[in-house]
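User: Predict Putative serine protease PepD's structure from this.
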Amino acid sequence: MTDETRTHDAQDAQGRTPSDFTDDAGQSPPASRPHFLPAGEASPSPGEQPGNDGWSQLGEPPGQGRWSQAGQPDDIGRPGEGGWGDPSGRVRQDTAVFGPPVGPPPPPSQAFGMGAGWAPPPGGFPGAAVSPRPAPRTSTMVILAVLVALLASTLGSVGTYLLTRPDVSGRDPSFTLGKAPSGSNSRPPDSIAGVAAKVLPSVVSLAVDGGTSAATGSGFLIKGGYVVTNNHVVAAAAPGGEIQIQFSNRKSTSARIIGRDPESDLAVVKPDETFGAPEISLGNSDNVVVGDPVVAIGSPLGLVGTVTSGIVSSLNRPVQAGEENSSDTTWLSAIQTDAAINPGNSGGPLVNASGEVIGVNSAIATLGRSAGGQSGSIGLGFAIPVNHARRIAEELVANGVAKKSRIGVTLDQTYRGTGVRIDSEAKGGTRPVEPDGPADKAGLKPGDVILEIDGTVVQDSTELIALIRNKAPGEKLTVKFQRGGQEKTATVIVGAAAVRPTPQPS
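Assistant:
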């Protein structure tokens, strides 16, 4: 026998053990004492010791009259204290722990919570059996009920803590961050959100199918139900392809080309339906200054209704798009912005803080493959000034073509000095200064070096062409030039080149 399972096994003189006796209800002494735990709690494991109210989690030592793990009264009391008597009037004990019994046994007593207590009569009774004295059952049941209630209350509190405390992983079923604060989604009209809310309903997305080629881009609705966009967005449909326009309410319709101008990279298309979309407000690009806040809206990479913001980074930035001397070569005197513009933004509006269009997003500068192959926005976007776009759109709606601004000179592409030099001799049968043209009438000669246009220093031929193309026919230019080491000034009235209608779908 081990200490944990030790039980009494005494016999009386007739060879009977306690299991041979019954109480006054005809029941044998209980084989084990019931033990109640809250739901989810485990029963005591072997090795735990019973405490004052049952099994304890803290390992209190056993007291008098408690139940052992074998289901019998413990034997750690003194002789006769609720133990079983043998014929000699002694109680079996571990003499190594308690020593031999001393003196005669005391009168029989009731073991706490276990019914009748067994002990020999005073002075002993050799050869005689003693019947157990019945114990008051009512008192025993009351005491048991109190113990069970106390035990359930204590372990119930422990169980509640164990169920609600955070586990070792940091999860807490009762964790909450509370309700979101109250607020409003209304924004001031001059905020970015306010500008976007005003402009978005007028911006559209274009999908072009040219059969062998396709393109996507953006545009915006103007007076008369027309849509302004870039020429390079719709060029694939010029031979007879299809154009689908999606509005901000996600409704779509087909559209046809009204006119396009490759040199300015502008085009006008007419959707079959506008679904009540409002026309956009056009601003004045001459009033734009560097540092003004701007918002770009379009469908980069097909992401309809994308809004980005930035500032005007520079003005009159010369941009040449396409191959030089090609029919689709574009020269722009552009508004530069750091608002994110990506493929698919082309043709969309660049607007000011009042929601007015100041430019048409048309081009971006990217890093070459040798610098990592980046092809998205790097903060260098370019927009056609709206004053130039306004004139081109009007002419395309009215005539299907737009006039090309010119001053009637050819430029020396081999010149590397300051400014831009007019050719000094004819090439390919073309005179350097067109006879009776705008430059000839202003007094410019072959070999003159143009230094400034309207106070803007000219650095190369691309910049000069872009500045001239940005002006409308009939506008005046103040030209500073150098001839024979001397600087001179002339006033040139911009002329218009003869134009041929661009091919349109039949």
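The mean pLDDT is 76.
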